[in-house]
Amino acid sequence: xxxxxxTAASSAExxxxxxxxxxxxxxxxxMQAAAEAEAAASAAPSPAVAPKKKRRRRRxxxxxxxxxxxxxxxPAAHGQNAALAAARSVQAALVPEEALPPPRKHHPSAxxxxxxxxxxxxxLRPTRQGFIRMRGKTDNGxxxxxxxxxxxxxxxxxxxxxxVVNRSTIRRIYSNKEFRRLILNRDNxxxxxxxxxxxxxxxxxxxxxxxxxxxxxxxxxxNACNQSKADRDLxxxxxxxxxxxTEAVE
Length: 250
Fold this sequence. Notes:
By secondary structure, this protein is α+β, with helices and mostly antiparallel strands. The termini are far apart. Strands 2-1-4-3 form a four-stranded mixed β-sheet, covered by helices on one side. A two-stranded antiparallel sheet has the order 5-6. Among the domains are: about 60 residues, no CATH class; about 70 residues, DNA Binding (I), subunit A (Orthogonal Bundle), CATH 1.10.30. The protein is built from nine helices and six strands. Strand 1 and strand 2 form a beta hairpin.
């Protein structure tokens, strides 16, 4: 019995040995095939991949956007418009134009009327602080701002040196250079007192006595008349005589 068991075991080992050897021999062949496939794949040239083109998005302009949001007119509305047009044409043919009432005019509000007409001296109203704002420009074009009383603002507007911007603001019309050029060109470089050539500006009512630099209070004067008049009134200067007349009498 023991001998039979030994022979059976040996036969089983013989049968198992070739089956185990076969996979061991098959493994190197599979590894070689995989290596050869990788080498062939690396050696083969890779196909050129074309770069993808970027798709540009078109921007819609304002007109396109506006037209995109406009709702289509239904066919019923077209029919109504055509009917209205036909009715109007029939009415125009039957009724003469003279019999038709005039078209209505838009009546502006009170604010629009106040701003439409030119503001004057009577429209000036001081602010809560009790003054009028005055603004203007220098010879270099730089803007300036000043606060004046109501009486001075009314005098400047009345004597054509400023204009009313709104009820509490006035604006000087001329800068210093522009005002000097205006007076000299207006008087044709002729002295207001003696009639000779003049290139200076004199105040009829001196500034020391309440006069202002306005077109109505300033005149062209020669240097001699300007110095001799000084801060005297016009009547006093005429009574005492002009400088050339006093020199001639002496």
